[in-house]
Write a structure and sequence with these properties.
The protein is mainly α and 403 residues long. The chain has one domain (3-402): Proton glutamate symport protein, CATH 1.10.3860. The protein has helices spanning 3-23, 26-34, 36-65, 68-101, 123-129, 135-140, 144-158, 163-188, 191-206, 209-239, 245-251, 253-262, 265-278, 283-296, 299-315, 322-336, 345-348, 351-357, 364-369, 372-402. Helix 4 crosses helix 10 (209-239), helix 4 (68-101) crosses helix 14 and helix 16 (322-336) packs antiparallel against helix 18 (351-357).
Length: 403
C-alpha cells in the first residue's frame, strides 16, 4: 500500500471538500458529491473481505493460544497479561479522545443522526443477541460481534480435537486468511482513489472544523499511547517484573525503533528476542512469550481503535451511552487481539465495533488517509507491550517456581 499516494488522495479530497464548503459553489458541491461513488465502491470492497478475514484471523489466533493447561503457567500468564493491558488501553483511548474533543468546535454530522440506528439494546437483550441463531445470517446482516463470538467458540472447541484434525482446521483457516490478506492488500492499493471519494463529500458537508478535529484526534491518540506506556506498561514491568523503568527503556530502544519504522511486530521479533536476552529474560520464557505476543497482543491497536470509535461517533453525531460503550469495549477487545498483518489493519478490523454502536463505516476512509502518524506510534507501543509481557511473565514464573 502506497501511503504517500493515499495521503495525496486525502489532501485532494480535503481540498475539494474545503473549497466546496467555503465557497458554496454549486459546481464544486456537485463535484464533491459526484466522487462519492468512488468511496462507496472502496468501502464495499473492504466490507466484502472484512467479515471472512476477521473470522479466519480470529480462528487462527485462538488456535495458536491452544489449550492453556498444556501451555502451562507461562502461557496462561502471558495471555492474562495481554488481557490485563488491553482493557485499560481501550479505556485510555476513549478517555483521552473524549477529553480532547471537548475543547474543539462541534462539527455538523455528515449523516443525519435520525437515519442512523443508534438505539441501544437493553443489557439483557445485548447479551442474548451475542449468540446468533444462525451465524451465516448474522454475517449477512453485518452482526460482526455475534460472528466473532461464534468463531471464538468454534476455535476453542477445535483445541479439544485430536492433534491431526486440529492442525487440518487451523491450516485451512490460515490459508484462507492468507488469501484474504492478499485480496485486502489489492483493495488497499485502490485506497488513494477511495479516500479521495470519501473525504470530499464529508468535508463539503462538515467544513474545515472537521480538519481541526482530525488534528486533535491524532494528538490525542499519540498522547494516549504514551499514557498507556507510562501508567500501565512501565509500572507493571517495575512492580511485577522487578525491572526499573530506566533500565527497561534503555534495553528496548532497538525494538521500539524497529517497530516504529516497520510498523509490524513480526518484523521486530528478531530484535525483541535479542534485547529480551540482554534484559535477563530467560530463553525459555521469551521464545514462547514474544512470538505469542506478536500474534495476538495489540494494546496500542486497541487504544487507537477505541479513540477512533469515539472520534467517529462524535463526527456522525452518534451519542454513546453506557450500554453502547460496554458493547464497543467488548468488540474492540476481541478485534484488537486478532489484528491481521496488513497495512492499517487496526482500521479495517474496527468494523465490528462501529457496527455495534451504529456508526457508519464511511468514516474509516478519513482515518486511512491520516493513519501513518498513529500507525508508527501504536506499532511501537505494541512492541513495548510484547517486551513488557516477556519481562513481567518471566519474573512471575520464576517466583512461582521458587515458592
Amino acid at each position: 500500500m502506497n501511503t504517500r499516494a493515499i495521503l495525496i488522495g486525502l489532501v485532494l479530497g480535503l481540498g475539494l471538500g474545503v473549497a466546496a464548503s467555503a465557497t458554496g459553489s454549486p459546481m464544486l458541491l456537485w463535484a464533491a458529491e459526484a466522487v462519492e461513488p468512488l468511496g462507496q465502491v472502496f468501502l464495499r470492497a473492504i466490507q466484502m473481505v472484512v467479515i471472512p478475514l476477521v473470522a479466519a484471523v480470529v480462528f487462527v489466533g485462538v488456535g495458536r493460544i491452544g489449550n492453556l493447561h498444556k501451555l502451562g503457567r507461562l502461557g496462561g500468564l502471558s495471555v492474562g497479561f495481554f488481557w490485563v493491558t488491553t482493557l485499560p488501553a481501550i479505556l485510555i483511548g476513549m478517555g483521552v479522545t473524549s477529553l480532547a474533543l471537548s475543547f474543539t468546535a462541534p462539527v455538523p454530522p455528515p449523516t443525519d443522526v435520525a437515519v442512523l440506528d443508534t438505539q441501544p439494546p437493553g443489557v439483557v437483550d445485548f447479551l442474548v443477541n451475542l449468540i446468533p441463531r444462525n451465524p451465516v445470517q448474522a454475517a449477512a446482516d453485518g452482526s460482526l460481534l455475534s460472528v466473532l463470538i461464534f468463531v471464538v467458540l468454534v476455535a476453542a472447541a477445535t483445541t479439544a480435537l485430536p492433534a491431526e484434525k486440529r492442525r487440518t482446521l487451523t491450516s485451512v483457516a490460515e490459508t484462507l486468511g492468507d488469501a484474504l490478506i492478499k485480496l485486502m492488500n489489492w483493495i488497499l492499493w485502490t485506497a488513494p482513489v477511495g479516500v479521495f471519494g470519501l473525504a470530499a463529500p464529508v468535508v463539503a458537508k462538515t467544513g474545515i472544523a472537521m480538519l481541526q478535529n482530525l488534528a486533535v484526534f491524532i494528538v490525542a491518540v499519540v498522547a494516549g499511547l504514551f499514557i498507556l506506556k507510562g501508567l500501565v506498561l512501565l509500572p507493571l514491568v517495575w512492580i511485577l517484573g522487578k525491572v526499573r523503568p530506566g533500565r527497561f527503556i534503555r534495553g528496548t530502544v532497538g525494538s521500539y525503533t524497529v517497530g516504529f519504522t516497520t510498523t509490524t511486530s513480526v518484523a521486530t521479533l528478531p530484535m525483541m528476542l535479542k534485547e529480551a536476552e540482554k534484559l535477563g529474560v530467560s530463553k525459555g520464557s521469551f521464545t514462547l512469550v514474544l512470538p505469542l505476543a506478536a500474534s495476538i497482543n495489540r494494546p496500542g491497536s486497541a487504544l487507537f481503535q477505541s479513540a477512533s470509535l469515539v472520534f467517529l461517533a462524535a463526527m456522525y453525531g452518534v451519542p454513546l451511552d453506557a450500554g453502547l460503550i460496554a458493547a464497543a469495549v467488548l468488540a474492540i477487545f476481541l478485534a484488537s487481539m486478532t489484528v491481521a498483518p496488513v497495512p492499517s489493519a487496526s482500521i479495517v478490523s474496527m468494523v465490528p465495533a462501529l457496527d455495534v454502536v451504529g456508526v457508519p463505516v464511511a468514516g474509516l476512509g478519513i482515518l486511512l488517509g491520516v493513519d501513518r502518524v498513529p500507525d508508527v506510534f501504536r506499532s511501537a507501543t505494541n512492541v513495548i507491550g510484547h517486551m513488557s509481557a516477556a519481562t513481567t511473565v518471566d519474573t512471575m514464573t520464576r517466583k512461582g517456581k521458587g515458592s
